[in-house]
Amino acid sequence: MIKSWMVILGVGFIIALGANFFTPDDRKWFNRLQRPRWLTFEKLIPVIWTVVFVCAGWSAYIVWERNPGTTETWLRMATYILLEILTIAYTPVMFRLRSLKVGTIIGGAGFVVGLLLTLFVLPVSGSAALLLVPYLLWSPIGTYTTWVMARLNPRDA
């Protein structure tokens, strides 16, 4: 029998593959952009996002295991999926459109969905809601960084 954590991991992995839909030219565009001087942690961003995604997946697992198969649980799972899609879409959509403004909007939308998801999950499990806090802390940092980059690179906003 397939375990719930396997499904959550598989769905997360399939959605994460969407992050690879950009070209070398898209990456060149982003790499040439001016960054804020305080952005000294850029090399750690993949590690940070890995921790954030693991926490969110663990949160989804807890929520599923509390009330598997109920309508409310399916709605919560759909919200987890929406959050991951928004988060993953940030890079390929921003790169493809070459628009830091679009990246800022996607980042802000992700934070709003993350906050709503946290509130939606809280009645089910405080632990599951707590596991979404890394997203709520990190997402605004990424969104703010993109907003600052838009101001530093007005032609690419």
Account of the protein in words:
This protein has 157 residues and is mostly helical. The protein has seven helices and no strands. The protein has helices at 4-16, 24-31, 45-66, 71-97, 100-121, 126-130, 133-152. Helix 3 packs antiparallel against helix 4 (71-97). The mean pLDDT is 94.
Give descriptors for this structure.
157 residues; mainly alpha; 7 helices
Percent of residues in helices comes to over 70%
Structural class: mainly alpha
What is the mean predicted local confidence, pLDDT? 94
Q: Radius of gyration in whole Å, from Cα?
A: 16 Å
Task: Please give the alpha-carbon distance between the first and last residues.
Answer: 49 Å
Order of helices and strands: HHHHHHH
Number of strands: 0
- Spans of 5+ residues with little confidence (pLDDT < 50)? none
Q: Characterize the main sheet.
A: none
Q: Which overall shape is indicated by the principal axes computed on the Cα atoms?
A: elongated
Please give the count of helices: 7
What fraction strand? under 5%
